Structures are given as structure tokens and as C-alpha cells.
């Protein structure tokens, strides 16, 4: 190194007497490191409490604080008795041991319990508030803001994780949604989305996950239902929406939905199930809209694809893209 440079650049970094490096390393590996470790332990403990749900409700906070404070009080009482007995044995007590025991049994549990309960409740309610904020954030990350239903991510996870027995997948699409937006404005489109979401919540009340998976696209995953039951519920939702009138500043309008229904098959993933329901939905659009169509059996899908390709010329096109053209 030229120019009279001295190595190492920080005097004492390797331990030269009087150098700042030793102090620097001492600070780094001493109290600072202990502080970092302590913070890491506290953070780990808080994460465990959030995961275990020990402070999930206000009642849990109070109950757990009382239990922990009682344990601390008992421990403090035992330690005080042992300490006083030791001091009495050594002749260091300025008063009688019996008087010391009376004072210990009166003051030690009381003070320890009050301090312990207060401290644990302060920490517990902080964790409780944190858990509520965390739950609200998780809820927001899996919820569609406009409709209040599950979003596409949450719905996809639910389909991928569930078993395939007695499960039905339904896809809905608002008919002529672009016309509603273009004619009456986007607030009208938003109102239509909210109406559909309300109807889905009212119709699919048991063992069902309702989601908005796209602009005007909705999906429902039914559990413990047959394909026929899924068709009946989807038809009920369609009829209710058809009978409703959407209230707008300029008057009332009617709108409809179309739907495709399929049952889940053992071994197929979300893509396969979605594709079958999507083809059924496209068939509903192609045949006049405002109807619910069941998916073809798997054995008939190849023929259906060939027919679609021959009539519409979208052999290499995704069914969703072809369906959008039919809206």
C-alpha cells in the first residue's frame, strides 16, 4: 500500500494497546450483541404468542395474566422464605424470624401479584392489539375490496388444498358487463358487482366459498354437494339476479348472469377444474346468456373442443379469451 498508508486502517483493530479497534469490537460483541440477542428473543416470544393464540381475546389476556402473576407470586414467596430462613440461620435478621414470615406472607404475594398482573396485562393487551391488526391485514389480503368476497388468491388456495370428494365448482359472469359500464358508468358496474356478491352470500350459505376472481367474474366452491345440487343453487342465484332491479341515479335497470358448473374429479388441479367450468360458462354465453350450463363429462371434452374450434376458429385460444369475445 503506497503513500504511507498504515494497515490496518483502524488502529488497534488487531489488539494494539490503546487502539480504538479493541473498544469497537468490545462494543460490538458486548452489550450491543446482548441487546440484539435480547430483542431477538422477545420478538420470537411475541411471534410464538401470536401463533399459539394465547392472547386472542381480552378474556384470554386477563386470564393468562392472572395465572402467570399467581405463579410469579408463589415463586417470589418461596424465594423470600428461603432467603429469610438463610439470614436467620446466619444471625443476620434484625428481628424475629416469625415476624419476618408474617410480613413475607402478607406483603410478598400481594405486591408480586399486583406488579405481575399489571405487567402481564400491559404486554398481553399489546400482543392482543397486534394479533387483531395482523388478522385484519390477513383478512384484507384474501378479500376482494369491492364485493367483500374472497379474492382470486384465496379461492385458488382453497381449491388446491381441498379434497375432491363431493365438491362442486361454479363460475359466474355478469352478462353484457361492458355495456353496463359504457352506458351507465363505472359506478353502475360496481353496483352490479355488489348485488351479485350479496345474492351469492344469500344463496350459498352452507359449506361454500364465494369469491370474485376477476372484473365481473365470480366463483363458488361447494362442499358436500352433488353436481345436481350445485346446478340447482346456481340456477337459484341466476333467477334472483334476473328478478332484481339495479337502482341507479337515472332509474332502474335489469341485468343477468351466466354460469358454468362442474364437479371436482380426483387428481385434477385448479386449472383442469376451472377449464371445465369455464367451457360450460362459454357455452352458456354462446347459447344466449342468462342460463346455467353443466360441464360436459371428461370423455366428451375432446369432442367439445373440436366443435368449438370448427365453429369459432379459436383452436389455439384459451377458453376464457374466446368467452370474452362472446360477452
How would you describe this structure to a colleague?
This protein folds into two domains: 53-141, no CATH class; 152-326, Reverse transcriptase/Diguanylate cyclase domain (Alpha-Beta Plaits, 2-Layer Sandwich), CATH 3.30.70.270. The protein is 61% helix and 11% strand. The chain is built from eleven helices and seven strands. It has a five-stranded mixed beta sheet, with helices on both faces. Strands 4-5 form a two-stranded antiparallel ribbon. The longest helix is centred in the middle third of the chain and has 45 residues, at 97-141. It starts with 19 loop residues before the first helix and ends with a helix. Mean pLDDT is 78; it is low at 1-26 and 302-326.
Q: Can you describe this structure in just a few lines?
A:
The protein is an alpha+beta fold and 327 residues long. 61% of the residues lie in helices and 11% in strands. The strands form two sheets. Strands 2-3-1-6-7 form a five-stranded mixed sheet, with helices on both faces. Strands 4-5 form a two-stranded antiparallel sheet.
Amino acid at each position: 500500500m503506497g503513500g504511507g498508508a498504515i494497515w490496518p486502517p483502524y488502529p488497534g483493530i488487531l489488539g494494539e494497546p490503546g487502539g480504538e479497534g479493541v473498544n469497537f469490537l468490545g462494543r460490538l460483541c458486548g452489550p450491543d450483541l446482548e441487546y440484539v440477542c435480547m430483542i431477538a428473543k422477545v420478538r420470537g416470544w411475541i411471534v410464538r404468542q401470536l401463533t399459539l393464540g394465547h392472547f386472542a381475546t381480552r378474556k384470554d389476556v386477563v386470564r393468562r395474566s392472572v395465572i402467570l402473576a399467581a405463579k410469579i407470586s408463589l415463586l417470589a414467596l418461596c424465594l423470600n422464605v428461603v432467603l429469610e430462613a438463610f439470614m436467620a440461620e446466619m444471625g443476620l435478621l434484625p428481628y424475629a424470624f416469625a415476624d419476618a414470615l408474617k410480613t413475607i406472607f402478607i406483603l410478598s404475594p400481594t405486591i408480586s401479584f399486583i406488579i405481575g398482573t399489571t405487567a402481564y396485562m400491559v404486554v398481553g393487551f399489546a400482543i392482543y392489539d397486534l394479533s387483531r391488526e395482523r388478522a385484519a391485514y390477513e383478512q384484507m389480503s384474501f378479500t376482494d375490496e369491492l364485493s367483500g368476497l374472497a379474492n382470486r388468491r384465496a379461492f385458488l388456495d382453497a381449491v388446491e388444498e381441498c379434497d375432491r370428494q363431493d365438491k362442486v365448482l361454479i363460475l359466474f359472469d355478469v352478462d353484457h358487463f361492458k355495456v353496463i359500464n359504457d352506458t351507465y358508468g363505472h359506478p353502475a358496474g360496481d353496483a352490479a358487482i355488489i348485488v351479485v356478491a350479496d345474492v351469492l352470500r344469500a344463496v350459498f350459505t352452507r359449506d361454500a366459498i364465494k369469491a370474485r376472481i376477476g372484473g365481473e367474474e365470480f366463483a363458488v366452491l361447494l362442499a358436500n354437494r352433488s353436481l345436481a345440487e350445485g346446478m340447482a343453487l346456481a340456477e337459484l342465484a341466476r333467477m334472483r339476479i334476473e328478478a332484481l332491479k339495479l337502482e341507479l341515479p337515472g332509474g332502474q335497470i335489469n341485468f343477468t348472469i351466466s354460469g358454468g358448473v362442474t364437479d371436482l374429479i380426483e387428481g385434477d388441479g385448479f386449472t383442469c377444474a376451472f377449464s371445465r367450468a369455464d367451457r360450460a360458462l362459454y357455452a352458456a354465453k354462446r347459447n344466449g346468456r342468462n342460463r346455467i350450463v353443466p360441464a360436459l363429462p371428461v370423455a366428451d371434452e375432446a369432442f367439445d373442443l373440436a366443435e368449438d374450434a370448427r365453429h369459432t376458429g379459436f383452436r389455439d385460444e384459451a377458453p376464457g379469451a374466446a368467452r370474452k369475445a362472446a360477452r
